[in-house]
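Shipment paperwork, digital attachment
Item: protein structure file
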Amino acid sequence: MEKPLETIIVDSILDAIADQRLHAGTKLGEQALSDLFGCNRAHVRRALGTLTAYHVVDHLPNRGAYVATPTPQDARDVFQARRAIETVICRNAVRQATSEDIAALRVHLAQEALARGSGDRSAAVRLSRGFHLLLGRIGRNPVLLRYLEELTMRSSLIIGLYATGHGTLCADDEHTRITDAIEARDMDAAQDLLDQHLRHIEAGIRFGDDAPATGALSMALRRDAR
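Attachment content:
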């Protein structure tokens, strides 16, 4: 099934941020996006509305939409909240994961390994977020999953804008070790590994005085627009 246009635009903007083609403060003009994706501006407004709700885009009155510029405190707050929420999600996953859930995690791990091996940074960031969302679904608490969706999207923005190379992309075995602990029903190990994993990601974020300059929006999104 083909993705809705709004989802394509949202995913493309997130991928461009993760791949460091879009930077903090970049203007996301409605008409420019409409032209790039061959759609009407209503689709663009809905996509930007989604990104604004998740704090990835700032909508400034009379000025339009811009890629958000998170601060170091924003990053600390996001990862503190993630540790709190994902501790509970992880506990639920250990208790409730089925054999089908574990199989789904293994398939996802293989996709992540492929993305890392091919050097596809945007896919690696997207799949890393997807692993945590998959854990959220396995934990079977839709309220926590909703909060996690926002926090992981904000994390993707922070990682894409301020990551030091591939330092914030998951080490090859981190998600695998978490999955192994969940499959073994080892709650303490799973929670400890998840906490260490999130702290490792946060440690790879380095804020400079200024975000790097970006090129034209059309160049940043050219590979994603259809």
